[in-house]
């Protein structure tokens, strides 16, 4: 929450994006890891509830940490790529329409 509020106060788009991406990815991966592991441990392995809970907690923590780190790295990579395209005068290169693509052509012949 501090990272998000600091990014908003300083009008830093990169920090705001990173804080939201890390939170969302880490939380989602942690919940998914815990749920899947708990179900597999109880349903397939036949483990007791305390053992399944302990293993699911460990997997959830590892999944959340890994997803959070990867999402932060991805946001850094995407923002740096967008900045480098902007320095080359291609601010909207990711969203340019390709005239040879039938979805973006001005005539819809055959569609």
Structural class: mainly alpha
Low-confidence stretches: none
Mean pLDDT across residues: 83
Number of strands: 0
Which geometry do the CA atoms define? elongated
Key structural traits:
111 residues, mainly alpha, 0% strand
Protein architecture, described:
The chain has 111 residues and is mainly α. The protein has three helices and no strands. It has helices at residues 2-9, 13-45, 49-87. α1 (2-9) runs antiparallel to α2 and α2 runs antiparallel to α3 (49-87). The longest helix has 39 residues, at 49-87. The relative contact order is 0.11.
What is this structure, in a nutshell?
The chain has 111 residues and is mainly α.
Topology (SSEs and partners):
Elements: H1 2-9, H2 13-45, H3 49-87
Helix pairs in contact: 1-2, 2-3
């Amino acid at each position: 929450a501090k990272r998000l509020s600091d990014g908003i106060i300083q009008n830093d788009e990169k920090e705001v994006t990173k804080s939201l991406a890390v939170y969302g990815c880490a939380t989602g991966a942690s919940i998914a890891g815990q749920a899947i592991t708990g179900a597999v441990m109880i349903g397939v392995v036949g483990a007791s509830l305390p053992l399944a809970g302990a293993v699911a907690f460990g997997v959830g923590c590892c999944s959340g940490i890994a997803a959070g780190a990867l999402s932060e790295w991805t946001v850094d990579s995407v923002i740096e790529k967008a900045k480098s395209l902007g320095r080359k005068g291609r601010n909207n290169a990711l969203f340019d329409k390709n005239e040879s693509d039938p979805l973006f052509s001005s005539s819809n012949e055959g569609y």
